């Protein structure tokens, strides 16, 4: 049988084992077989000798900021995924941000697909950052994107353009619970941070050192406890 590619003499690393002197047979972009001496069974258009090299599954980076609206990002989908591939990461999950004024997430997903399509060097997906979780979005639009393969949302408890009230977080949690989505939360007490930041600014204490001072651990502790309580009330797991 003729195939597209055979990688021969590889040391294959899986999640649990290391297998020496393995051949990997690829057809139509998929692994067809892994084993020893497979060149005696298959002929290939291309053969790569991987002696003294490790071959392992591509990595998945599930927290990636690329070409994002709500904050400056160092990379777009082209430069970021080129770096990913160079380091062995073959799938990235980036963040697609809804703005506060958007009443629908349809244009959000379409916009971010436009940024990635034809530019990404690897597979990609999205976490949806919800900043305006309207009943229509939660009832009608989220189920559509679950069917399209988006399985997670990200919520913020701080940052003015992004943060949600507790009641809005509960609304989202009830929707994600019903849909089996992962609920991710950035948990910090927004009022504590704003209060401390204002007082530091009054004293002209604005050097980078004071960024950490403006965000003491208690601001995170309180928000984490609060969102865990909301999750317990909703009976939904969360990723903080």
TrEMBL record:
Cofactor dependence: Zn(2+)
Coiled coil ranges: none
Molecular function as annotated in GO: dihydropyrimidinase activity
Species in which this protein is naturally found: Colletotrichum noveboracense
Protein's name in the database: dihydropyrimidinase
Amidohydrolase-related domain mapped to chain residues: 54-201
UniProt similarity note: Belongs to the metallo-dependent hydrolases superfamily. Hydantoinase/dihydropyrimidinase family.
Reactions the enzyme catalyzes: 5,6-dihydrouracil + H2O = 3-(carbamoylamino)propanoate + H(+)
The protein's Enzyme Commission number: 3.5.2.2
Top EC class of this enzyme: hydrolase
